Amino acid sequence: MLYKSIFNINIHHAFFLDDGTSKFLDMTDDEKDVQLLKYNLSEFMMVTPMPASKSTLRNHRMLWRKNPHGIRVLVSVIDVTIDGDDEHQPIIPFADDLALVFEVRASDPFFNNYSNLEDINSHRLYHFTNKKLSTEGGGFANIFTGDGIVDEDYLLSEQGSRLLIHSLAVTGQLNNTVIGTDAITSIPDTDLGTTEAQKILNAYIEREKKNGLLGFVTLHVKGDSDNDLLLYNDDDPNDIKQYLPEDAPSFTLHMVNRSTFWRYIQEKENLSFTTEEEKPLTKNGFVEIVKEDLDPEPSTDLNYPNPDAHLIKLEDDNNYYSEIFI
């Protein structure tokens, strides 16, 4: 049985891929390859198909496979000839309204410390999709054409987040063992704007975000603006043929690392020195700090190590601070 890729999703995070102040996105291809050798998404994140999508994968002879960068989905195909060309056609045809949904969830308890995410504390979810929800404006990014930087372009409104969760619940995409799912499925479409419905949906989103939920990838067989997963030959309206493109769509989402002010604390002398500018948090590499970078400026140069991502504080000035004891 022959399987071919239908799409690939990579998720890169600058905290793991930047080298000090050298940004992964600015590196040469060779330098990127070196950084990716030691990268493993499973260290901090899970991307998994939702329950109804697992059934869809199984029923359409599709496979999903994890790799160090993300996931790949393959489909069983047969060789056919279309307009004189050899093509790969899914063994089981896809309905035009078929969609696959994958949950994106952080598994590292310190993920929020080193990730620069928009509205992390609100009732909003990220949605990486090729078909925009009706609640979202024209600036909402299509995964086929967006720049892949995980920012507000992929962030649903609160209304859109509630609509997405409700839609996933009523279509069997949410895990029905999770607290609150039954209450969500009982909400009629016409009542989504009521205070009680919003309360139920917001509570679910807030609870799941505390458990690492970031959002969802939803890929429709037929997306907006012909951003489709398959190609179609409709010369015969009564026999429309669908087949895989020669190169499967490959999507790369880039997560941005957080920058913080670095505060060096000398407990014995009861002194502290803070960088005048924010510095990036990275797992690899080293950001050099000299006394001229600090306020107040120390009288002598000291050893200024880089902070880890474990101790970060959001203070009254709405800035994040990393504390390092020296």
Q: What are its keywords?
A:
326 residues; alpha+beta; 6-stranded mixed beta sheet; 5-stranded mixed beta sheet; 17 strands; globular
Sum this structure up briefly.
18% of the residues lie in helices and 31% in strands. Helix 5 packs across helix 7. The protein folds into two domains: 254 residues, no CATH class; 67 residues, no CATH class.
Topology, element by element:
Layout: E1 2-13, H1 14-17, H2 29-37, E2 45-49, H3 51-59, E3 62-67, E4 70-82, E5 85-90, E6 99-106, H4 111-114, E7 126-129, H5 158-170, H6 181-185, H7 195-210, E8 213-220, E9 231-233, E10 241-243, E11 250-255, E12 259-266, E13 271-275, E14 279-280, E15 294-295, E16 312-314, E17 320-325
Parallel strand pairs: 1-11, 7-8, 12-17
Antiparallel strand pairs: 1-4, 2-6, 3-4, 4-5, 6-8, 9-10, 12-13, 12-14, 13-15, 16-17
Helix pairs in contact: 5-7
